[in-house]
Amino acid sequence: MITTLLLGSALATGQAPALPVIPILPAKVSAQAAPLPMPLPKVMPSVTPMALPATLPPVVVSPAPIYVPAPAATEAPAAPAEEPPAPATKYLAEKLLEGTAFGQILSERGIKVTGWTQMNYTGSSASRSNAPTTFNDRANFFQMNQNWVDIAKNVDTSKNEFQTGFRVGTIVPGYDYKYTLPRGFLNGQSGQYGFDIPYLYGEAFLPGFGPKGTTLRAGRWGTNIGYETIDAVSTPFVSRSYNFQFNPFTHTGVQATSQISDDVTIYNGVVTGADVAIDPAATASYVGGIKWAPAKGKTSVAFNTFITGQGYNVNEAFQHFNSYNLILNHRFTDKFTYVLDATVSNTISTDPSLLANGRAAEWYGFANYFIYAVNDKVTSNLRVELFEDAQGVRTGTRGTYFAATYGLSWTPMDWMIVRPFARYDHNKNSPFEGEQNLYTGGMELILRY
């Protein structure tokens, strides 16, 4: 079935009869704006008023140059010397701390402080809301999506020694918080801009556990389900794919990651669910996956799973579900990379107000990314996706969604990313303010520090 869907993803359309958009939760908008209908979130946290809540390779990484051997000689030439890796880019915060006593303390402990400000203006054929698309959900509106501060100490798994690390990645504040917040954490917010800590975990590297050691993590972190991520600098567009929007954002719990060979990494964890922290709505859930990524190869494949075994929690008004995800990344040339993000999700029961008798439901999506590095400053990004929500339990309108997004990523300076974009969405059951088609476009700016 999956093969057939992959081959037909670009042409598939839904055939289910039209249903009205079911507003799941009220949107958070400014005092000057009328309330907007919003799509069903990944979870439903208890925010007053209830907020809409709620993945990780870098979006565009220039591939390593391929070494071409010299022509054969009468005797074997000496092996070419490897070029040292390019030094990591230092942004404003690190440069300001460099040379200070506090900066010296951080450097000695391997702690880095970075961040960014992300903003966008989205023009739209809709008059008020781009729902069920999210993050840049307001039509013809300027948003400050993320003011992000990141404090991290990474473990180096290449060193055969015990190490500890951590990461604290915060939105302080930003418009995106209402989608990323989990149930049971910072839920008392109700303004247009708010706070969240999508990454809040500690780590320990244990060199003696497994062939190449194991990293233990405890806290909250971004899911591996899907190609896109919460943090703006690691995802290709300000507008997110349907796969990203309607599947897990973050997990809270414990996880062990082991590199069992030079090419294969596995991870397993026990978490409280998808986008739920320590809360009565939590349920013990499993996250796990395996990734095959040859160091000198052009292809990597990752399979990720999230399993709860639970459905809709009536008492807590919270939706649990399972997700099964495949990410295929292939570098055709030094400049051109293709990525497939395929996810199938299901729940054993859902909210009876959304689906008669609260019966089981399923949704799935295929997002294709075509990434071309024009030069070291400009990257061309195209995303073509299909998302099937046959029963309408995730988006509020049943049927097949098709979307195509194109944009450029221009880095005129290492601390500035300029990303113009254009997007087209279609569902024959008219979820876009009563229309079958939605046209959006605009400009995104990220300033790194």
Model description:
This protein is mainly beta. It has one domain: Porin, CATH 2.40.160. The chain contains five helices and 18 strands. The chain has helices at 2-8, 92-97, 101-108, 177-180, 242-245; strands at residues 112-124, 141-153, 163-174, 194-206, 214-222, 250-259, 264-271, 285-292, 299-307, 312-313, 318-319, 322-331, 336-347, 361-373, 378-389, 399-413, 416-426, 437-448. The strands form two sheets. A 16-stranded antiparallel beta barrel has the order 1-2-3-4-5-6-7-8-9-12-13-14-15-16-17-18. Strand 12 and strand 13 form a beta hairpin. The termini are far apart.
- Overall number of structural domains: 1
Fraction of residues in H or I helices: under 10%
Name the poorly predicted regions: 1-82
What is the C-alpha radius of gyration, as a whole number of Å?
A: 22 Å
CATH class reads: Mainly Beta
Order of helices and strands: HHHEEEHEEHEEEEEEEEEEEEE
| N- and C-termini, Cα separation | 46 Å
Number of strands: 18
Order of the strands making up the biggest sheet: 1-2-3-4-5-6-7-8-9-12-13-14-15-16-17-18
Mean pLDDT: 84
What is the approximate shape? Answer: globular
Number of helices: 5
Describe the main β-sheet briefly. 16 strands, antiparallel, barrel
Strand content: 35-45%
Structure keywords:
single chain, 449 residues, mainly beta, Porin, 16-stranded antiparallel β-barrel, 5 helices, 18 strands, disordered N terminus
Task: Draw up the topology in text.
Layout lengths: L1 H7 L83 H6 L3 H8 L3 E13 L16 E13 L9 E12 L2 H4 L13 E13 L7 E9 L19 H4 L4 E10 L4 E8 L13 E8 L6 E9 L4 E2 L4 E2 L2 E10 L4 E12 L13 E13 L4 E12 L9 E15 L2 E11 L10 E12 L1
Antiparallel strand pairs: 1-2, 1-18, 2-3, 3-4, 4-5, 5-6, 6-7, 7-8, 8-9, 9-12, 10-11, 12-13, 13-14, 14-15, 15-16, 16-17, 17-18
